Amino acid sequence: MSASAVHGLWTDLAAPAAEPIARIQAPTIEYAQLSPVLIVIGAAVLGILVEAFVPRRARHYTQLFVAGVALAAGFAAVVALSVSGYATTEAGIAAEGALAVDGPALFLQGVILLVGLVALFTFAERRLDPAAHGNRVDSFAAQAASVPGSDGEKAAVKAGFTTTEVFPLLMFAVGGMMVFPAANDLLTLFIALEVFSLPLYLLCALARRRRLLSQEAAVKYFLLGAFASAFTLFGIALLYGYAGSVSYARIAQVVEGTVKEVSPALAGTMGNDVLLLLGAALVTMGLLFKVGAVPFHMWTPDVYQGAPTPVTGFMASATKVAAFGALLRLLYVVLPGLRWDWRPVMWAVAAVTMVIGAIVAITQTDIKRLLAYSSIAHAGFILAGVIAAKPEGISSVLFYLAAYSFVTVGAFAVVTLVRDAGGEATHLSKWAGLGRRSPLVAAVFAVFLLAFAGIPLTSGFAGKFAVFKAAAEGGAAPLVVVGVLSSAVAAFFYIRVIVLMFFSEPTPEGPTVAVPSPLTTTAIAVGAAVTVVLGVAPQYFLDLATSAGTFVR
Amino acid sequence: MENLIAPLIAAPLLGAAVLLCGGRRLDKAGHWIGTALAVASFVLGAVLFAGLLGRGAEDRTLVQHLFSWIPVEGFQADVAFRLDQLSMTFVLLITGVGSLIHVYSIGYMEHDERRRRFFGYLNLFLAAMLILVLADNYLLLYLGWEGVGLASYLLIGFWQHKPSAATAAKKAFLVNRVGDMGLSIAIMLMFTTFGTFAFTPVLGSVGETGEGTLTAIALMLLLAACGKSAQVPLQSWLGDAMEGPTPVSALIHAATMVTAGVYLIVRSGAIFNAAPDAQLVVTVVGAVTLIFGAIVGCAKDDIKKALAGSTMSQIGYMVLAAGLGPIGYAVAIMHLVTHGFFKAGLFLGAGSVMHGMNDEVDMRRYGGLRKYMPVTFVTFGLGYLAIIGFPGLSGFFSKDLIIESAFAKGGVQGWILGTVTLVGAGITAFYMTRVMLMTFFGEERWRNLPAASPDAPDVEPAADHGGVPHPHESPKVMTVPMIVLAFGSVFAGAFFGIGERFVHWLEPVTAYEHGHPPVSALTVTAATVTVMVIGVGLAWLQYGRRPVPVVAPRGSLLTRAARRDLLQDDFNHVVLVRGGEHLTRSLVYVDHTLVDGVVNGTAAGVGGLSSRMRRLQNGFARSYAVSMFGGTALLVAATLLMRAV
Hints:
By secondary structure, chain A is mainly alpha-helical. Chain A contains 21 helices and five strands. Chain B is globular and about 110 Å long.
């Protein structure tokens, strides 16, 4: 901007308008195509209004109703859009280029909505903890602001308070996660990242029992998340400097060299490959942090262990879906021209992630930490599919995410059931002989573990097979070898839990399995059903993922 | 008409299913059901036989295709049956002798509370044996082959409460596994060579195949035959198999199953014809077994084991003949059929003797029984005359033909084989006369048996079932089958042999060349008869003229070795069992140290790595942040490096 232009700005404002102001071009918003996100965010806002105006007594059911209806409606909207062809032929860019409405976006939004609905059921479970002072309580702190162990906390418990704010927080997180894989420019990506991360930080801190552990987890998650966000933002800035735009399409064009004109303000930096590589690496790092890939994984075990288990289940499944969706779009839409630069690096990350996740899990003694390391190993497996850089890579990852998220949310729902006097009994030694006392619960958990291990006739096998196949066809055969070996190591600790449950003598004062309300029962049943159906008859869903496997640009 | 083949097999199969699944409510009627279905099968066989006779000689092959068994691209196996003159012969032998033995067993097994199960097993055996001989491809034949093995195992160990019977069953099963491996390898070789299992394409395309492959297939088939037919070196199970009930010994371990090896060789004649080296091995195996079995038969005091040695020896004759090629195939089968009659008759006779002697099997405790069991004596005697080749009886015709064919082989080989068969005939006459004399003639040794004393621990107490035995004739249900078989023993040979009726009947399947021995046929016959007379005479000198001691004398080195089956078990024990033990011990050592070492070492290594890496997870957010920072730096550096290179 030249000095005269600045001057003109002031003078124009100062002087009365000589001619009518040109009409502001209102952005076109495709409300119908954005409806799934709008419904969920709208319900989150409505949830806050419920907190403000509905009497405390009625809030729990009102919130559950609002959130449940919104998630179901959102899913219906996703299905309607897919049926109308927005996943394939009608796929396009909406909201002035901010969001993509295409196959992967709709598929992942659908998965997130369903997982969110299942997680909502576990959030709303109020029968597992014994009633406190005659009030039914859920997994969340009576009053989040009260200091653990203080009189204020006791008073809040006595008054029967519950933190019903978790429902709008969950809805905001779901909304952000839905935008994340659909984001079509870097700023939307960042906003979505923060929109779903901030509620998760809060939710992590809200455990009713072991609150200090929970709060420590939340603080760690927040600090490290903020750290990662800073890297991401820095990367976005560098990419803007490189391409003169934050739009995915535009950056891709500059990478390919199809756009030559240089914006005068960025003449010095535009097209500088160092900026591109640095920026791409930093944004990728932010996404790898969210999926829990090594070496950005260290928050995972602490946070998974400390967070209230329903939150852990939600976080472990839905966050992974959203973050892998965003990573896929970044690598396949924005950076395919850089394939030969990022693929070797991602190879290394995937291999190290699989190996470390599987190996460190072996010596874990806490079921939640075990599942956390298992999720790290699985992040490595999914990365192997991401790296394929082929259409099969996209569809196999989509399928894997759908399969994995339901197994995870189901497994953590089972963890909420096994309890002793101190709340959930997460130490593995307490799970000894569970199969003798509660065969059904142990059997369902065994199904989830077998799915994690990738045993045939479970969804885990179909997903792992698809991902490894895509990776091998994409020329990453050594990675597949590492993956299979890691799977073998991983099978050890999954099977060990099964052995512990079914072939060990129960401990005398072992935990009991609480009888849940239909909410948790539904959550576990849905998780198990999806696991088995996707394992026994995966073809329909593989076809679905294949037909949804094309990114729009 | 070919639609009758499947019911022929289905009848005993149904019997087995009904009897084995029917439970106790069938205990009363079980033996009748089993016998009726065996007879039904025989009747169907007879109808088919009549049908075949009504056709031209070249037109006597019926094929029934039942269903596609393994319909895989490039791997086709059908359940299809083939009835031709060869399988027809076997069908009549199996169902005919089988039916008679079913009838006999009604009486023999009368007091056994598991009689229903026994008949179920017998029916199972019949079905499996019929599948074996009627199969139109080698894979289905293998099914029958394993089926008869199973039935044999179940029946040898039928009295499983006796440890000796259980062990014998296991031994038979294990030794047969060796042969079965041979058959399965032969079938695999056939599949890789010819791409099919069916008889017609396999045997038809022999001419286009290299001799080496054919020799390999033929030797594997021979191994299979050795296992099933108790030929050296897989002969050791047959003697112990006599632990089974006597009807089983008669049906399975004399007349039918043990001859399956001969069937296999004759059926695969085209392969053997094209592999002369393998044929030579076949004749050698036959010749060795012939002498081996005969020597063992001379030394055994257990009547059934003496007969088992004889069976081994007679099958040796058949195998030898089958190894001679087209001049021998039909002759081998002819001896097989006549042997089926007289050996089954001899076993039933032995069973009848045991039945009357409180299940005593030691011939030294028999003697002079002809007065007490006249029918058994006469039928057994006719079987005896048949097996030693008394002129005019069955064995005379069939054995004489084999001896002639052996000489007709020509050259030095012909002389050697011919001499061996002649000597074998002499030894046969010796040991069979010995059995005859010890059992039915001489003093009645069973009257004054020494009581068991600590000084003579070898002597078993006489009173297995109480007191001095009271020999008596068996009931009609047992004697009638013996009489029928005796008729066969007497007349079958003449019926088959005169005018070469039998060999011409088989000619379309096996082809036939009349052998021309270097000396005239009449000379051979004269020599055979002479040798037979010498054998009988020697036996009479030793066992007829002199009294037979109740306790076996120490005997010469050869006798003692022969009593121990010519040390076959000792050989197997030292070479195979000890060797196997050493092998497994060293394998276990390797497994424990090397394999387990690697496995456990890996596990321990991974575990150690795990605990070490765990420590990185120290709980401090600052350490985590450093790790993230370092990771990012690496990521960036690596990306830039990738661009640089």
